[in-house]
């Protein structure tokens, strides 16, 4: 095991007092930007970047990547407590995390999320350590048709689920696709669907849509029901943190499955967002308690969080070995690498062994530091739930407004965010599902680009999606996932004829 | 109060209107699928058509007296409507005031107003909360992360 | 009006070049915003941050500088923002040639005339790249094979610099290429490494890693003369070893992309002159040289009438290509 000795060498670089101190600083700063919606890891990383130019590259990347871990963890906090996902990849965490927190168990929800996130990240790092070169080869096999197939698979695993009125699901999905298409189209360079508003040429940012749909929308639903969080036990309960983490191994299957999905989507171009949605969708379909998903199920938190972090971690690998950033933050780090005079790419592993293995070792240590710090903060964050609604409501409004504004310093975004808030409320009230809408906004345009790039390559023939084994497998898997619920539904009347109607109200409630 | 049916109809009209706008706009971009690739308007056009068709279906279901829908005849009672307005109207005024007052002043006034006017908190505590909010925003965004929030037309007039 | 401002601009630039700091009549009184028309990590973002760092390090202004990314719509978001901020001398927009190219080929709501040109500060070169193990050794081999085969050329964005160059290659080399647009040069480079494309025309910095790593190599550079001598990229070759395309029989003498700096429209000549001077000072620092070398760009400084002439020529050329391709917006 050549890699193993390299790794030990890496540990000797990463585990030094100054580097551990940098990790703590990075993680804390990361948690802060992660918790504040509108500021994300890319903000923090790009602001720290200038400070790092005087440092050794390995110290600098340790600081930046620790910040990245902190931000990944922090992003889940607002998703769970206030239903405001700060990053696209933590949307799926809101589905069960928020109901659980609302149900009076914020500590459990947060601890579960952090525990499973750490597990996912760990699996991601292990993958990077041992399979770096293999993984790089896998990523290279992905051309436009394969990209499309991966996105298709993500949609298929998530959208095919029953629950909501099918036509409403279709409308929500189509609206998401249309929103994703707004702005300049990569493939043709032309401006689409700006509705006469010049500024819309930039497109509709995901954060703007989600702050409105989830944050403001949920706030409106809550105020209408005169919601008060069920009394959270008033003392800070440290034991519950450890109990929640201790219960994780019981969900071993979900953890492993989600980590596998996450790693796969992180290496392939799917990315953390697609990974978390897909993992949630698959868990909901295969879990024995799948029908309770959306009401605060533990596995509904574990699945997206594990996959998100596994993907986020393994997404750093394409950056290092190929020079393509797997996420916006990775892109900033890559810019940093170049300014430090390092060229990301295959030669980095040969030319800059200390750097690469120092970074990989710091991922292990950084994650442990991050999860320890973040678990310590759980009771503090959970205590936020005790603030009376009348005070927290205007604060959430301000957070959403500032968050929407700071995405690209645009007032229009703030107005749109408020508009999305009304839409979010109406949709929630009338059982239009929000999840497919959001998924389509996030990966709709990427899927469309990949599809049209494929059509350019194949001169308009769909045959390209069955041109080799890889893409055929992906497409067939997607179609199977899409058809599975239909088949099951068709089969159901033969097995059990009783009371489909009695189900509906209960089902309607479960819809996200 | 607002009936479930009215709400369904309104939403269907809203989504349908968006769908029509999408269809009309995408026609400008050109729709087609040939050996030269897929035109940029094609997919938006298709999604627009789906939105319109789906909205018409939802609209029809709303109009036709369906048994299922009637199970919850009233979607929003007048009390609920008042609560909704109580949250949304101040928020909308807050957003509308940002270009004039700037983020800091607008958010401070907003916090003060929603706490003090319905007498949730005393005037003093509301004022403290308002000042704290604006200060926290300033420190975190303007100072720490160098994200410049709008200062507003008033501040600009005084040269900030 | 425009003539006067250009005149003043070049006069003040000339005076400032003679090292007379007293003549900077206008000084910024509040924080300055650098608007990068690219996402974090992109070339335009890097230059904005490099300039920011240099200014901060040498305290070239007392005011803090904040970099804001407005990358939406291939950078159009940033330019539209600049247009909307007319008269505001605290917004400096960093872009490329797409400031004047984009309005020509797509219905964006700005034109470069809505902005005040400050300078073009660095030129990015373009090269023709193929996969490492492809059989073509020269641009001639490549063109010969492309004439009979169905070649896929990748590039960043549509109807932008990469595609314009692709169409020029088609014309000069009498071949037909299928152009496939991706989001960025980095993405394109990976697609080539994976064998999904036959070639691309990336800038040096976008593909240096892949060249060094042995997944792709440059055939020729679209420049009148070979690139300056620098450190070796691979064991045996450096940028200066790459032949020009003209040498290899692909008759495109020069094609490059300037990094441009703008102010919003309707600022005073004083204000524009201040930033011209500021950028000049930035360019004189060793850190700038370092940035230029690390990003494998060519150091230039065009301002005033020179810059204007450059834009006009480039625009004329683009208009020709665009009208042949039917890209011009009606």
UniProtKB/TrEMBL annotation, chain A:
The DUF112 domain, residue ranges: 20-439
One Pfam short name: TctA
Domain of life: Bacteria
InterPro entries: DUF112_TM
Record's keyword terms, sorted: Membrane, Transmembrane, Transmembrane helix
Chain ranges passing through the membrane: 20-40, 47-69, 109-135, 147-165, 171-191, 203-223, 259-283, 322-343, 355-382, 389-408, 414-443, 464-488
Keyword Lipoprotein tagged: no
Keyword Transmembrane helix recorded: yes
Listed name of the protein: Tripartite tricarboxylate transporter permease
Lineage, opening ranks: Bacteria, Pseudomonadati, Pseudomonadota, Alphaproteobacteria, Hyphomicrobiales
Automatic annotation (TrEMBL), chain B:
The entry's keywords: Membrane, Transmembrane, Transmembrane helix
Regions that span the bilayer: 43-64, 84-117, 123-141
DUF1468 domain boundaries: 13-150
Lineage top rank: taxon: Bacteria
InterPro entries from the UniProt entry: DUF1468 (IPR009936)
Protein name: Tripartite tricarboxylate transporter TctB family protein
Lineage of origin: Bacteria, Pseudomonadati, Pseudomonadota, Alphaproteobacteria, Hyphomicrobiales
UniProtKB/TrEMBL annotation, chain C:
CDD domains per record: PBP2_Bug_TTT (cd07012)
Signal among keywords: yes
Annotated signal peptide: 1-24
Keywords: Signal
Family annotation (Pfam families): TctC (PF03401)
Highest taxon of the lineage: Bacteria
Cell division is among the record's keywords: no
InterPro entries found in the cross-reference section: BUG, Bug_dom1
Recorded family membership: Belongs to the UPF0065 (bug) family.
Protein name: Tripartite tricarboxylate transporter substrate binding protein
């Amino acid at each position: 095991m050549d890699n193993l000795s390299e790794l030990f060498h890496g540990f000797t670089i990463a585990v030094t007092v100054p580097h551990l101190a940098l990790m703590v600083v990075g993680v804390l700063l990361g948690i802060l930007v992660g918790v504040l919606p509108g500021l994300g890891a890319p903000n923090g990383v790009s602001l720290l970047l200038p400070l790092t130019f005087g440092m050794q590259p390995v110290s600098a990347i340790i600081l930046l990547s620790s910040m990245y871990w902190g931000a990944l963890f922090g992003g889940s906090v607002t998703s769970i407590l206030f239903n405001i996902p700060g990053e696209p990849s933590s949307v799926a965490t809101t589905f069960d995390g928020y109901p659980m927190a609302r149900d009076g168990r914020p500590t459990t929800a947060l601890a579960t999320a952090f525990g499973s996130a750490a597990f996912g990240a760990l699996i991601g790092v292990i993958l990077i350590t041992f399979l770096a070169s293999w993984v790089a080869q896998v990523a290279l096999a992905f051309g436009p048709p394969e990209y499309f197939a991966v996105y298709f698979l993500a949609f298929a695993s998530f959208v095919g689920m029953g629950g909501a009125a099918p036509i409403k699901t279709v409308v929500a999905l189509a609206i998401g696709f249309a929103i994703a298409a707004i702005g300049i189209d990569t493939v043709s360079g032309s401006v689409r669907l700006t509705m006469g508003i010049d500024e819309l040429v930039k497109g509709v940012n995901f954060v703007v849509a989600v702050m409105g749909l989830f944050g403001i929308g949920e706030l409106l639903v809550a105020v209408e029901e005169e919601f008060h969080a069920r009394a959270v036990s008033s003392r800070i309960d440290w034991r519950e943190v450890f109990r929640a983490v201790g219960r994780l191994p019981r969900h071993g299957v979900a953890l492993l499955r989600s980590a596998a999905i996450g790693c796969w989507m992180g290496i392939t171009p799917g990315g953390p967002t697609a990974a978390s949605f897909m993992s949630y969708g698959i868990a909901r379909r295969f879990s024995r308690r799948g029908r309770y998903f959306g009401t605060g199920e533990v596995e509904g938190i574990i699945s997206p969080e594990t996959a998100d972090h596994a993907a986020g971690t393994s997404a750093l690998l394409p950056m290092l070995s190929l020079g393509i950033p797997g996420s916006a933050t990775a892109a900033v780090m890559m810019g940093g690498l170049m300014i430090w005079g390092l060229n990301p790419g295959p030669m980095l592993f040969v030319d800059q062994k200390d750097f690469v293995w120092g970074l990989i070792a710091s991922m292990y240590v950084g994650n442990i530091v991050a999860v320890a710090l973040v678990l310590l903060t759980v009771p503090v964050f959970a205590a936020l739930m005790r603030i009376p609604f009348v005070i927290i409501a205007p604060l959430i409004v301000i957070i959403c407004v500032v968050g929407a504004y700071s995405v690209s310093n645009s007032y229009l975004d703030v107005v749109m965010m408020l508009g999305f808030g009304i839409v979010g409320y109406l949709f929630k009230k009338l059982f239009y599902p929000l999840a497919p809408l959001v998924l389509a906004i996030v990966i709709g345009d990427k899927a469309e680009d990949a599809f049209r790039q494929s059509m350019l390559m194949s001169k308009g023939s769909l045959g390209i999606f069955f041109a080799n084994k890889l893409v055929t497998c992906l497409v067939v898997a997607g179609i199977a996932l899409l058809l599975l619920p239909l088949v099951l539904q068709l089969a159901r009347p033969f097995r059990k004829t009783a009371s489909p109607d009695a189900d509906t109200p209960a089902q309607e409630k479960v819809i996200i | 109060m607002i009936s479930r049916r009215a709400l369904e109809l309104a939403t269907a009209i809203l989504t349908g209107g968006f769908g029509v706008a999408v269809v009309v706009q995408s026609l400008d971009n050109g729709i087609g699928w040939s050996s030269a690739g897929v035109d940029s308007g094609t997919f938006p056009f298709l999604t627009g058509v789906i939105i319109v068709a789906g909205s018409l279906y939802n609209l029809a279901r709303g109009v036709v007296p369906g048994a299922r829908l009637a199970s919850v005849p009233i979607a929003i009672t007048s009390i609920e409507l008042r609560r909704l307005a109580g949250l949304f109207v101040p928020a909308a005024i807050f957003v509308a005031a940002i270009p004039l007052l700037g983020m800091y002043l607008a958010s401070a006034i907003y916090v003060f107003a929603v706490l003090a006017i319905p007498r949730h908190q005393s005037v003093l505590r509301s004022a403290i909360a308002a000042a704290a909010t604006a200060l926290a925003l300033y420190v975190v965004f303007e100072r720490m992360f160098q994200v410049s929030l709008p200062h507003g037309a008033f501040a600009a007039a005084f040269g900030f | 009006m425009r003539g006067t401002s250009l005149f003043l601009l070049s006069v003040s630039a000339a005076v400032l070049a003679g090292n007379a700091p007293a003549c900077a009549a206008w000084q910024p009184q509040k924080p300055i915003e650098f608007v990068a028309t690219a996402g974090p990590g992109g070339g335009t973002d890097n230059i904005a941050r490099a300039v920011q760092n240099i200014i901060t390090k040498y305290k070239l202004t007392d005011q803090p500088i904040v970099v804001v990314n407005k990358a939406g719509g291939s950078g159009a978001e940033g330019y539209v923002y600049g247009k909307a901020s007319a008269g505001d001398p605290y917004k400096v927009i960093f872009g490329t040639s797409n400031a004047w190219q984009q309005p020509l080929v797509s219905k964006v709501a700005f034109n470069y005339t809505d902005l005040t040109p400050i300078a073009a500060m660095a030129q990015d070169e373009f090269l023709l790249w193929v996969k490492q193990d492809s059989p073509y050794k020269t641009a001639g081999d490549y063109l010969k094979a492309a004439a009979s085969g169905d070649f896929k050329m990748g590039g960043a964005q549509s109807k932008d610099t990469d595609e314009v160059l692709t169409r020029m290659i088609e014309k000069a080399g009498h071949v037909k290429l299928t152009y496939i647009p991706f989001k960025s040069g980095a993405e394109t480079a990976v697609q080539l490494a994976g064998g999904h494309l036959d070639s691309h025309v990336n800038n040096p910095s976008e593909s240096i890693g892949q060249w060094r790593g042995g997944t792709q190599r440059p055939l020729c550079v679209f420049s009148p003369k070979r690139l300056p001598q620098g450190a070796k990229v691979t064991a045996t070759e450096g940028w200066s070893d790459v032949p020009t395309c003209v040498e290899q029989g692909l008759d495109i003498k020069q094609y490059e992309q300037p990094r441009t700096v703008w102010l919003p429209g309707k600022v005073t000549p004083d204000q524009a002159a201040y930033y011209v001077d500021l950028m000049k000072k930035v360019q004189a620092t060793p850190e700038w040289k370092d940035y230029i070398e690390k990003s494998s760009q060519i150091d230039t400084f065009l301002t005033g009438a020179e810059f204007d002439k450059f834009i006009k020529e480039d625009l004329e050329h683009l208009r020709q290509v665009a009208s042949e391709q039917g890209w011009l917006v009606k």
